[in-house]
# Entry
Amino acid sequence: MGPFEIMGVLNVTPDSFSDGGTFDDAAAAVRHGRRLVEEGAAIVDVGGESTRPGAAPVPVQEELRRVVPVVEGLTALGLPARVSVDTMKLEVAAAAVEAGATYVNDVTAFRHDPRLAALVAERGLDCCLMHMLGEPRTMQADPRYDDVVSDVKAFLEERLAAAVAAGIAEQRVQLDPGIGFGKTLEHNLELLRRLGEIAAIGRPVVLGTSRKSFIGRLTGRDVAGRVHGTVATCVLGYERGARVFRVHDVAAVHDGLSVAAATLPPDGS
Ligand code: HH2
# Structure
């Protein structure tokens, strides 16, 4: 892995908060995935279920119908990038892996279905374990922590231990503080300020700030206007130890991180 990796977001959903409905045709989604890689994505994260606050769960057959053809299409292109599947469902992860995905991004960190951990272990896949308080339907209703950074860190350490206990090699695991998942504006900012405490766990930190509402709160911009704010969070996150950046605007973030990486030592110290 270089000094940083970009995970390009490819949502094949009618209702994602920033790109919903744009790529609900598989061929258009595959074309966009190729473009993300051309712009610098090392991972393309294919998702068929929105996890925005208040989102309704998607039936498994529908999620399979959305995700599998896109993973197949991207794999067939032989791109210089890994394909990731953003799902909490075993059936969807298993089918995506059969279609060529080698990375599982589960926003429940294997709590929704622990059999996902067994799949990742057996197939030697990479995975991202993310912190979320509650579930998407209700997570933004008055989230509370003793200390958000310590609580998130303890959670990620516990989920890392559970993943290793399930047979996943530690070097396959990346950790994500879950910006916006059961967090107020102040919780998100505190996590970004003290991201180094999460990086100190010793696994690569994934940061998913892209176009999120806290950037809108700070800038007054709608989703399409949040790219500059997103780049700022990625550059600062990189300085504080994040190494994988899950974003929609790959070209802009790649530019920002290339400059940041050239001006900072690669270990962020
Ligand atoms: N954020 C979203 C979805 N998946 N996965 C990880 N690891 N980290 C994140 O921060 C993260 C994630 C939400 O963003 P998006 O995919 O753009 O929207 P939606 O959930 O509405 O599809």
The radius of gyration is 17 Å. The chain has one domain: 5-261. The beta strands are 5-11, 43-47, 82-86, 103-106, 126-130, 173-176, 205-207, 242-247. The pocket of 6-hydroxymethylpterin-diphosphate is lined by residues 9, 11, 13, 16-18, 47, 50-52, 86, 105, 107, 128, 130, 176, 178-179, 206, 208, 246 (CB under 6 Å).
